[in-house]
Amino acid sequence: MSRRIKIFDTTLRDGEQSPGVNLNIKEKLIIAKKLEGLKVDVIEAGFPMASKGDFESVLKISQEIKESTIAALCRAVKKDIDLAYESIKNSNSGRIHTFIATSPIHMKYKLNMSEDQVIENAIEAVKYSKKFCNDVEFSAEDAYRSNIKFLIKIFEEVIKAGATVINIPDTVGYAIPKFYGDFIKEIISNTKGIENVDVSVHCHNDLGMATANSIEGILSGASQIECAINGLGERAGNTALEEVVMAIETRKKDLNIYTAVNTKGIWGISKAISSITGIQVQPNKAIVGENAFVHESGIHQDGVLKEKSTYEIVTPESIGKINNNNLVLGKHSGRHAFDNYLRNNGITLSAEELEEAFLKFKKMTDKKKNISYKEIEAIVNSNTTDLKETYKLISYQVYSGNKMICTTTVEIEKNNKILIESAVGDGPVSSAFKAIERTIGKKVRLKDYSIKSITDGDDSLGEVIVKIEENNKIFVGSSLSGDVMEASINAFINAINKMIDSLN
Ligand code: KIV
Ligand code: ZN
């Protein structure tokens, strides 16, 4: 019989630990809803002890998400566990995920604890968590570099104490598939009681082996994979959800395993997460890279035209990627046609999301007659949060040229008041940003600015992503427009509004 593998998504916890990623509650909730739509089994919503914002987002996600289990991470410390429980206690299905490091390096240098002390803490933590919640996951941090006999001992003890899931992370991405598989097998064969719990794999990608290690772990008897969309996570990231899920889907007959993930949602969620985090995936990234389904050489193109399976083992449709740029909507298309168009292309939105996407679409058609599928997809997946718009662009004017001083004037609304400022700069974008800084009365630290066209062709929409820094936190702003100056100004204002929102 085929074995169901559980998918534990940690985009909102380990993924958020990616350098330069800082999500607000609204963005986390949008992502959680998309993960629920993707039908992942568990959403690790955050680490409540890490910050007030983390606690509040786990709390909010727990209240709103009904289908997936919500996990909250905590150290093996009572006050962390209390807070983790507080954040998930209203969920339909909640999990306390407690961890302590078990490798000699971590125990000596980080914890300054002996093996006996670590075991004692782990047992205490699981017993304490069990008072509140039946579903308790125990992670042995840096498990792969731990002494296996010690690991088996600690796992036996925490299972006796009531743990329902045992996680065996390769925290620093040191494993090689064959060795990781053997490691998992040895633990499963020698740990008393392990047959009654889920065994989980959590792999980091430092050597580029996270997906291979996770699959090897599953084939060696594990039943849960911890992963993140687009492989986000600490350093080189975590196992990419889209890769393990599609590897299992593509080879399910040979591997005799399956997941419950709705693979058709993969492309959309990957795009949405790139837009929200400002981290684009590389073009040749497996499954969700722009080139993942592009056939460049003549021989390949000829083969695919004759029979797709000559060079395609995964179809774009199976991950919800529609390649139809001939389908366009225009100025006269109404809400109903827009909704139908999305549905026919496998995109279903909630009433709110539809309204927001439709308004954006309509705004685009003021300037651009026809909007292609790729552009509509970008509109739908663009960073949409019900963010309080402290500042709003009304108009701008630019005087620019290579032999003149660039000047931009911006007209911006704040609390129903119109503010007008001008500034000069080295180029149009820099003068516009300086004019905005004058409007808000503050110098902003610009960390990154990027622009890309959504389709080929000179009338394509452009997407601008701007990152700014305040108090060591990064705020990502983005905007889409047929006019790149407008997109640049709006992306900068969007990042500033997020920064202000985080202070309130
Ligand atoms: O990589 C790791 O070990 C972790 C644990 C906290 C599960 O993220
Ligand atoms: Zn991790």
UniProtKB/TrEMBL annotation:
Give a yes or no for keyword Cytoplasm in this entry. yes
List the cofactors.
Mn(2+)
Annotated region (Regulatory domain), positions in chain: 392-504
Q: What class of enzyme is it?
A: transferase
Its UniProt pathway annotation is: Amino-acid biosynthesis; L-leucine biosynthesis; L-leucine from 3-methyl-2-oxobutanoate: step 1/4
Query: Could you provide one GO biological process annotation from this protein's UniProt record?
Result: L-leucine biosynthetic process
Instruction: List the molecular function annotations (GO) for this entry.
Output: 2-isopropylmalate synthase activity; acetyl-CoA C-acetyltransferase activity; manganese ion binding
Q: Which UniProt keywords apply?
A: Acyltransferase, Amino-acid biosynthesis, Branched-chain amino acid biosynthesis, Cytoplasm, Leucine biosynthesis, Manganese, Metal-binding, Transferase
Does the keyword Metal-binding belong to this entry?
yes
- Which Pfam families does the protein's record reference? HCS_D2, HMGL-like, LeuA_dimer
Q: What is its EC number?
A: 2.3.3.13
SMART domains xrefs: LeuA_dimer
**What residues does the Pyruvate carboxyltransferase domain cover?**
5-267
Similarity field:
Belongs to the alpha-IPM synthase/homocitrate synthase family. LeuA type 1 subfamily.
NCBIfam families assigned to the protein according to its UniProt record, in alphabetical order: leuA_bact (TIGR00973), PRK00915.1-3 (NF002086)
The free-text function statement in the UniProt record for this protein reads:
Catalyzes the condensation of the acetyl group of acetyl-CoA with 3-methyl-2-oxobutanoate (2-ketoisovalerate) to form 3-carboxy-3-hydroxy-4-methylpentanoate (2-isopropylmalate).
Alphabetical list of HAMAP family matching this protein: LeuA_type1
Record-linked PANTHER family: 2-ISOPROPYLMALATE SYNTHASE 1, CHLOROPLASTIC-RELATED, HOMOCITRATE SYNTHASE-RELATED
What is the name of the protein in this document? 2-isopropylmalate synthase
